Amino acid sequence: MDLIAIPENPVPEGAIISAVRARDGADLRVARWVTEGSRGTVAMLTGRAEFIEKYFEVIGELLARGFDVVAMDWRGQGLSLRELTDPRKGHIDDFAIYERDLYSLTQQILVPFCPRPWFGLGHSMGAAILIAQSQAGLSPFDRLVLTAPMIDLCRLPFRRWAPLLAEGLDIIGLGGAFVPGGRASSILTGPFAGNPLTSDPRRFARTAAIAKAAPQLTVGDPTIGWANAAFRLMRQFTDADYPRRTPTPTLIFAAGGDRVVSTPAIERFASRLKVGRFLTIPAAEHEILMERDPIRELFWAGFDAFIPGTALAPAPEAAPGKSRRFWWRGKAKTPKAAAEASAARFSPMP
Hints:
9 helices
């Protein structure tokens, strides 16, 4: 379970590599970094098909800000246990399993080793899992920062029928098959031109080089079972009361050019937040943290104003199973407007 480095992507110094043992015995790869005089701990929780190595640059930037960092490969990707015998398939039966794995990370890594306050930084699928955990009243984090959360998918063909089709195919035993048209190869093996992830050729090439050097880190398209589980989760997000019952202060970034998840759906969801902030970055593609420097600077301006924020009481520890929520918003229309408004818009929570 070592971390894999390439010349373009060295491992940040001081990495401590370990494994979390999930409830069902699955081993999940975890890495953490410690700083002197820590300002708290940021848990980096990635999107579908991602891996810790992809975020070395982000981890270095968090360490430079004085935070301890914890990063985990979700089960079924990176070097964590794969759910199926074919390791190229991105699979899960229920997103509640991810939430239980996150609880195991809290109990085995955050509680014994990581200084408070704790903050969650999640992308796409990881962001959706953090939302669901918070809505259930189980989030251990004082604040959340989410990029392009998977509230709904973008440009989904046969939108009305796709969830029913996934459920039906899953019921008849095809949950372990790729989604229709799915491929075993990672999107990182394709060309930069036309990719839906980032407009930055350098960062795309760096991630592709990692995948080429260590293909065992990657997965292909999701399975029908994963899609069915994702549709079930996203269906919950359509409830207007869902964001209103989310208690964790949350900052959401959406990408104006997103072709993976639906930015309008994120905006609708975020508009109902009672304890949150919201910003769309118009020029960004789906992977905001893998974008060009001017886009990333907007992200970090918001992050720095929001984290760590004012002192908050530690979240109560609980075992999985409950429900509640809150949120808030604020939105700039262009990168220039976002930059000018950042100081006011991202003022610390009281």
